[in-house]
Write a structure and sequence with these properties.
Length: 253
């Protein structure tokens, strides 16, 4: 079964066919004309999509035989900061994932603690805004279970992810709402293809939110914050690419 043909995929494919060089999710749509065409009418498309689709439905899962022999990395391949280099040099023994904000029980979880939690393994397709797709296996605890452990408050509406990588000198961040946060296929992956997550793919922990495009799958996650509003996060649009390159906040597929 091929990936669904959406307006975003058609435009990305057309750009590639026309000779536009897209070298990664951090370069796709930086060309103003392409970006303008891609997001024209996006608000109407997004509203219709969210209204007409069941956001709790499961993304398709695949068999091991269908896994891609090559799975490219999207976005940053290595944060390259001294702090991250120190963590990776020690196999992330000192890593802590903080869970803060509108929670009654703030957490600071080590990689060992995350690995000790009940894990979900799923083989899904990653669809990059650049126009490529790949199928891989991901393992990690469901985000919803981590939020339950932190006793998320009733006034929380969004989950913000803080990351170790920098783009243009700015820390990467992303966000999703509680429907996606508690979706059973939304996991904090520490494993990929039956091995520990590699640095290019977001070690030690990355978000997998399978009903959305690849740039929503934050890598190098160091912090999770429950908030009532996105107004105080960056420029208020909910993520790095949304704030600075006009990407769409809801990237449902």
């Amino acid at each position: 079964m091929s990936a669904p043909i959406t307006r975003r995929r058609l435009v990305a494919g057309g750009a590639i066919g026309a000779g536009v060089l897209l070298t990664g999710c951090d370069r796709a749509i930086e060309i103003p004309t392409v970006r303008k065409i891609l997001f024209t009418g996006e608000d109407m498309h997004r509203g219709l999509q969210r209204a007409l689709t069941d956001r709790r439905a499961l993304a398709r899962e695949f068999s091991a035989a269908q896994m891609s022999p090559i799975f490219r990395s999207n976005g940053t391949r290595d944060p390259g900061t001294p702090a991250y280099a120190a963590l990776s040099a020690d196999n992330f023994a000192a890593y802590r994932l903080t869970v803060t904000g509108l929670v009654n029980r703030p957490l600071a979880l080590s990689l060992a603690q995350l690995r000790s939690m009940p894990a979900r393994t799923q083989i899904t397709r990653h669809d990059c805004v650049e126009g490529w797709s790949a199928i891989g296996k991901w393992t990690g605890p469901m985000l919803g279970n981590v939020l339950k452990l932190a006793d998320i408050r009733r006034d929380a509406r969004y989950i913000v992810f803080r990351c170790a990588d920098l783009i243009g000198g700015k820390p990467y961040y992303e966000s999703i709402d509680l429907i996606d946060a508690f979706h059973p296929q939304t996991i904090l992956a520490w494993g990929m293809n039956d091995a520990m997550l590699t640095i290019p793919h977001g070690a030690p922990v990355r978000l997998r939110v399978e009903r959305q495009l690849g740039y929503k799958h934050a890598k190098y996650v160091t912090g999770i914050e429950a908030v009532a509003s996105l107004a105080g996060i960056g420029q208020g649009k909910g993520g790095y690419w949304e704030d600075w390159v006009d990407y769409d906040w809801y990237a449902g597929i």
